[in-house]
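Need tokens for this chain, all 474 residues.
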Amino acid sequence: MEMGEQKQAGDMGLLCVPIPLPVPLFRGPGVQSIIRNPRESALTRQVGTGIIDRMKSNSRWRRFFRRALFAAICLALLLVLTQEWPDRAATDYRYDAIIHNRRFDFVGWELRALTSKALYGLAPPHTSLSPEDQKRITLRFIDQLHQVRSLEDQIAATYADPAIDSPRMAVAELQLQMTLARQELARVQPLAEGILEEQIASVLAKEGITMAGRIFPPVSLRFTPLPTMLVVSPRDRIEAIHFFALEPGLGTIDRVAIEEAIDQELDVSSLVTNIGGLAVYPAMMPESSSLPWVTSTGAHEWTHHYLTLHPLGILYGSDAQLRTMNETVANIVGKEIANQVVQRYYPELVPTPLSSDASDSEPDPNAFEFRAEMRITRLHVDGLLAQGKIEAAEVYMEARRRIFWENGYHHLRKLNQAYFAFHGAYADEPGGAGADPVGPAVVELRAQCASLGEFLQTMAPLTSFGELEAILED
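Here are the structure tokens for all 474 residues:
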């Protein structure tokens, strides 16, 4: 699982719209309408010839494909059953009474995603394209995502505007534009997913993160509206004791109603929040218009897939320290792989280094620094809870939330024990984890390893934080 995109500042306020299952490109008009350039006809012939050759494959290929599809389905089911949250078997039935009709349909989503991936995999057109055309398609897809997000924001703003008497009529034209944009997005999506999967896998292989010389599990991504996540923590300590994946696009009113019902009924701290990705198989990817962020998320979620086959990932939900170890490893791998993907395939997106004058300038001492302020908040909350001052801690967190809001973090709707329980697991940088030593220990191990592959292979077999400490002491 990965956090939302905006500096851990809480809910991102996205308006999520389900994507229809895309028609496989080899059954449609091909890629001639996707790549707009003077070489269009040549590209179409090139891709078409490649598809025909693949579709004429012999019976051995067909048997291999059936076996690969069966293995992918088994792996997907394994990953669904080994999700990134604690075991739900002992969950109080009272949770179900509150959220039963809001649960995310994982089985339906997996069946649709695997079917689409299997059909596209019969003859993936992107393998016949040049690197320049692959790059053009991916950037066009990201631009289309930006257009969709912009339309969603306009529709949401129209419904929220009290001066508009009939928002449904006011957004009719925007809804039509949205429908057309979604249709175009669905046509390009399988190509873009295949290209990004191949690029991430190439960098992983370069780092030596392979099994028997291959990337396993294969990198598999699916852009989709993401579930919202209900996080539950006890009030007397900060610990994620339950996670529930809820339907995408829950509005603020529904989120608050769920939280209030659970808090009052069960005397816990809860938060319904957006997430940045989810490591089912294929990985659920955010509909973000930031290519570096998307690539980082893809590598982050693949790391969870990899760890699920090793002790560290298998024990993900057994305690808070192991969850933090998993998420911090995935964050580190995700960021490093994303940096290399962008540098190799999209160098124009690499940030321009600061000039010497800018880098030497003194930072503004009065500037509000999110992570530093969140760390201060977490440390004080931990101290109050350790003294048994639950109400005082909750009053303090609300007061601090208002300070964050006044400094521009308007998406920080709620700051409570559940917020820290969720965000504190991503501990590769200081912030919501407070004084928790787990994240810094993982970061220290990465600094000691000569390569990212060595780091991941060292972390994967660990079964406790104590084992990590022992490695660092040697």
